[in-house]
Write a structure and sequence with these properties.
This protein has three helices and 13 strands. By secondary structure, the chain is an alpha+beta fold. It is globular, with a radius of gyration of 21 Å.
Length: 278
């Protein structure tokens, strides 16, 4: 009996050690990808001038003139700290949990979003990136591990291109692979192409040029059938603040199937810091 108990204890210790090592390797991968993206920051980027956007359609030009002040260094990579709520359910039962997160956003190269939410044994933590989605329960039990597929890459591309519009607008200035169109008097459409991927994002502006809503056709399996398909994703932006010459929203409410009866904002975030330089 004592031998069997000892073997059981050793087996549990081995399992816990293996899971801890696995989790440590995830942390290491998160850090390596974040460092890779942060290394893309330019030490002395060019500065913004109105002439850079003078040929754009009117709503796109108004967006940039609001989002970037004249003379602002055009940093394209940002570190973003946030807190808020993350919905684990649906419209009828959102099941919101408190969360905090750190993100490195470097469109069109990629992103890493590292989140911790909930509490105690129900604490969920992990990361989302262009290459993976990996979350753990209680820091020891893997509850989601996907990535490495064309579907995941395409879905992640939609997310960080849309976020670049309102958090790193310098990354979506017109240039190779980046064009803008006017949908109507108050809506500009970004079209970004990169490595065979193509994403459009519609940006709705208020009278001052603030981007108050973004909507995009996103490749996603967040639907009752869990099948990948193009479906609307987006949300509302508010509470703008100045960050080193960029006027950026600090409150974001977003979710799947925006514009339909099934929409609910599963992601509600309050930005506490945006850093463009070390």
């Amino acid at each position: 009996m004592k031998t069997a108990l000892l073997l059981l204890v050793l087996l549990i210790l081995l399992i816990l050690t293996g899971l801890s090592l696995w989790r440590w390797m995830d942390h290491r991968a998160d850090r390596a990808e974040a460092d890779r993206l942060l290394a893309l920051r330019a030490a002395q980027p060019p500065v913004f001038t109105k002439t850079m956007v003078e040929d754009l359609p009117d709503p796109a030009r108004r967006f940039f003139l609001f989002a970037i002040k004249e003379g602002t260094p055009l940093h394209r990579v940002a570190e973003i700290s946030m807190r808020g709520q993350f919905g684990m359910g649906d419209k009828d039962a959102p099941n919101y949990m408190p969360m905090t997160a750190e993100q490195v956003l470097a469109a069109p190269e990629g992103f890493v979003w590292k989140m911790s939410g909930g509490s105690g044994v129900m604490r969920i933590s992990g990361s989302d990136s262009a290459s993976w989605t990996r979350f753990w329960l209680g820091g020891l039990i893997p509850v989601a591990r996907v990535g490495g597929t064309e579907d995941h890459t395409r879905s992640g591309f939609g997310r960080y291109v849309a976020e670049a519009v309102f958090w790193t607008p310098a990354a979506v200035l017109p240039g190779p692979g980046v064009t803008w169109q006017a949908v109507d008097e108050t809506t500009a459409r970004l079209i970004l192409e990169r490595n065979g991927l193509r994403q459009t994002v519609d940006v709705t502006l208020d009278d001052a040029g603030r981007p108050v809503r973004v909507v995009l056709p996103r490749w996603s399996n967040a639907n009752p059938e869990t099948e990948y398909r193009v479906q609307p994703f987006g949300g509302d932006l508010s509470e703008f603040r100045d960050f080193d010459g960029f006027n950026l929203p600090t409150r974001v409410e977003a979710g799947n199937l925006i514009g339909t009866d099934a929409y609910f904002p599963f992601f509600i975030a309050e930005v506490t810091a945006i850093r463009f330089q070390r």
